[in-house]
Design goal:
By secondary structure, the protein is mainly α. It has one domain: Protein Yjbj, Chain: A, CATH 1.10.1470. It is about 80% helix and about 0% strand. The chain contains five helices and no strands.
């Protein structure tokens, strides 16, 4: 799944994102608006991920969602 799909399906994926990364608040999710760069930034902030690690985690998450 690419970045455009994340943005397009944000409303459906938002709950799954919050399940996976429970430290993200509703305000965080509102700010992210389905943009992978903003999601990566919030993961770095909340979980201490490096930029590369955050991007890998997002890619992994998107592959998992595609398989569902």
């Amino acid at each position: 799944m690419n970045k455009e799909i994340l943005e397009g399906k944000w409303k459906q994926l938002r709950g799954e994102v919050q399940k996976k990364w429970g430290e993200l608040t509703n305000d965080d999710l509102d700010q992210i608006e389905g943009q992978s760069t903003k999601l990566a930034g919030k993961l770095q902030e909340r979980y201490g991920y490096s930029k590369e690690e955050a991007e890998r985690e997002i890619d992994k998450f998107m592959r998992e969602m595609k398989d569902k």
